[in-house]
UniProtKB/TrEMBL annotation:
The organism of origin for this protein: Paenirhodobacter ferrireducens
Entry-linked InterPro entries: AP_endonuc_1, AP_endonuclease_F1_BS, AP_endonuclease_F1_CS, Endo/exonu/phosph_ase_sf, Endo/exonuclease/phosphatase, ExoIII-like
Residues with site note (Transition state stabilizer): N151
Keyword terms of this UniProt record: Hydrolase, Magnesium, Manganese, Metal-binding
Name of this chain's protein: Exodeoxyribonuclease III
Annotated site (Interaction with DNA substrate): H250
Free-text remark on how the cofactor is bound: Probably binds two magnesium or manganese ions per subunit.
DNA sequence: ATGGTCGAAACTCGA
């Protein structure tokens, strides 16, 4: 099963480019972030026409996540537990049954800038809520995938210019520690299970020629439960599409799972 | 040190 996560930065602006990529890559299961759309305004029919089931958790203008799947999406849950007052659409999960049942979570973790400040406090609180949900999911002892835009640069080697991110919410020590607290529950960073060393990025800013200078960061991740990590057969970053017309500032991270 | 670019939607904010 080919599984991807892709921050598309607006479904209305990206529908055409997304269809092109889906036709080429033919993923079975995709987590989308930053749909920037309400559920009603999301162009479901375009993706249903490509043979995907689709579930969205959107809001007007900002944030918003969605799941696309060639197999039915079962037991869909929207919203990250732990704060009934949180109105930001950043979490959706569902079960997909192939050879194995997989619990697939799509997440758009808060950016957190400027730090310090209320947005950074929200990011860290959100990460603690995510840790609690990740721990619950581990207890199922089933394959679990936490896929999305984490807005966390895990280590200096995950940035072309780490010094430029020293004071940024994506790289501050508290952000990295909160990310490690989730990993250390027993999850595997799928990309780092397969690839060592610097120079691998999933995001290049639109500004200052970041793509042309390869000034990127690795902030889109898939964390795998032990039962999912056992099934990992490969990982790729579809970097090439960043150079196309009207690209997202992120590119897809794709894994092959024997499920 | 600054400004540089996008998307959604509205005359600005979030990234």
């Amino acid at each position: 099963m080919k599984i991807a996560t892709f921050n598309i930065n607006g479904i209305k602006a990206r529908a055409e480019a997304l269809v092109t990529w889906l036709r080429e890559a033919e993923p079975d299961l995709v987590a989308l972030q930053e749909i920037k759309s309400t559920d009603e305004a999301f162009p479901h029919e375009i993706f249903e026409g490509l043979g995907y089931f689709i579930e969205t958790h959107g809001q007007k203008s900002f944030n918003g996540v969605a799941l696309l799947s060639k197999l039915p999406l079962e037991d869909v849950e929207r919203g990250l537990p732990g704060d009934d007052g949180d109105e930001q659409a950043r979490w959706i999960e569902a079960t997909v049954v192939g050879k194995r049942a997989v619990r697939f979570c799509g997440l758009y973790l808060p950016n957190g800038n400027p730090a310090p400040g209320p947005k950074y406090d929200y990011k860290l609180a959100w990460m603690e809520r995510m840790r609690a949900r990740a721990a619950e999911l581990l207890a199922s002892e089933e394959p679990v995938i936490l896929a999305g835009d984490y807005n966390v640069i895990p280590q200096d080697e995950d940035a072309a210019k780490p010094e430029a991110w020293r004071e940024d919410a994506l790289a501050l020590p508290d952000s990295r520690a909160a990310f490690r607290r989730i990993v250390n529950l027993g999850y595997t960073d799928a990309f780092r299970a397969e690839v060592e060393g610097p120079g691998h990025y999933t995001f290049w800013d639109y500004q200052a020629g970041a793509w042309q200078r390869n000034n990127g960061i690795r902030i889109d991740h898939m964390l795998l439960s032990p039962q999912a990590a056992d099934l990992l057969r490969g990982v790729t970053i579809d970097k090439e599409i960043r150079g196309r017309d009207k690209p997202s500032d992120h590119v897809p991270l794709v894994i092959e799972l024997d499920a």
